[in-house]
Structure formats: C-alpha cells, structure tokens
C-alpha cells in the first residue's frame, strides 16, 4: 500500500514542471561533478608530477646548455628541463 502510494505520488509529481526539470538538473549536476573531478585530478596530477612521481622520458638536450636535459612527462605530456650534473 505504501509503495503504490509512493508510485502514485511520483507519477502525479511527474506532471509538475519540477519533475520535468529533474533530468536537466541531473545532467547539470553530473556535468559539474565531472568538471570538479577533472580539475581535482589535474591538480593532483600536476602535484604528483612536481614531486616526481611521474615517469619522464628524455626527448632531447637544450641547445644552449649541453647539460640541460629536455624531458617530457609520460602522463601529462609536460616538458621540462632537468639539469644533469654528472
Ligand atoms: Zn606528469
């Protein structure tokens, strides 16, 4: 009885404009969540990158400074120059 009452309530509420807006609201909330997670992951990624958790591959040497190695992050494709002292 309670369940059918809820279902009746839901089907009635479906005709109101609030319920019609719900799918759009869910899409907006979902998009906002995705954007937030993406930003958080990017921040974490750059933080991990700066700390040195990411793997770098050597793509070349600096033209002006021979002991400057140009490396590229394999995860976020960021390039940076690393001093090779040995
Ligand atoms: Zn990285």
List unreliable stretches of 5+ residues. Answer: none
Q: Can you tell me the number of structural domains? A: 2
User: What best-fitting shape do the alpha-carbon axes yield?
Assistant: rod-shaped
Query: Gyration radius, to the nearest Å?
Result: 26 Å
Quaternary form: single chain
| Proportion of helical residues | 40-55%
Distance between the termini: 80 Å
Taking strands numbered 1, 2, ... along the chain, how are they ordered across the largest sheet? 1-2-3
Tell me the major beta sheet: 3 strands, antiparallel
Structural class: alpha+beta
Percentage beta strand: 15-25%
Kindly state the number of beta strands: 3
Q: How many helices?
A: 2
Average pLDDT, all residues: 82
SSE ordering: HHEEE
Bound molecules: zinc ion
Structure keywords:
alpha+beta; binds zinc ion; 86 residues
Describe the 3D structure.
The chain crosses the membrane at residues 23-41. Keywords: Membrane, Transmembrane, Transmembrane helix. The chain is α+β, with helices and mostly antiparallel strands and 86 residues long. The protein folds into 2 domains: 1-53; 54-86, no CATH class. Helices cover 55% and strands 20% of the residues. The chain contains 2 helices and 3 strands, in the order H-H-E-E-E. It has helices spanning 2-13, 17-51, and strands at 56-61, 68-73, 79-83. Strands 1-2-3 form a 3-stranded antiparallel beta sheet, with no helix packed on it. Strand 1 (56-61) and strand 2 form a beta hairpin. The model has no long low-confidence stretch (mean pLDDT 82). Residues 49, 54, 73, 75-76, 78 line the site of zinc ion. Zinc ion (ZN) binds next to loops.
């Amino acid at each position: 009885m309670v369940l059918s009452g809820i279902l009746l309530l839901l089907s009635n509420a479906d005709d109101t404009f609030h319920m019609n807006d719900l799918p759009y609201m869910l899409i907006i909330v979902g998009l906002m969540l995705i954007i937030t997670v993406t930003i958080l992951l990017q921040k974490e990624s750059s933080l991990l990158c700066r700390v040195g958790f990411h793997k770098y591959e050597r793509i070349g040497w600096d033209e002006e400074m021979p002991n400057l190695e140009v490396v590229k992050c394999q995860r976020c494709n960021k390039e940076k120059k690393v001093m090779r002292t040995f």
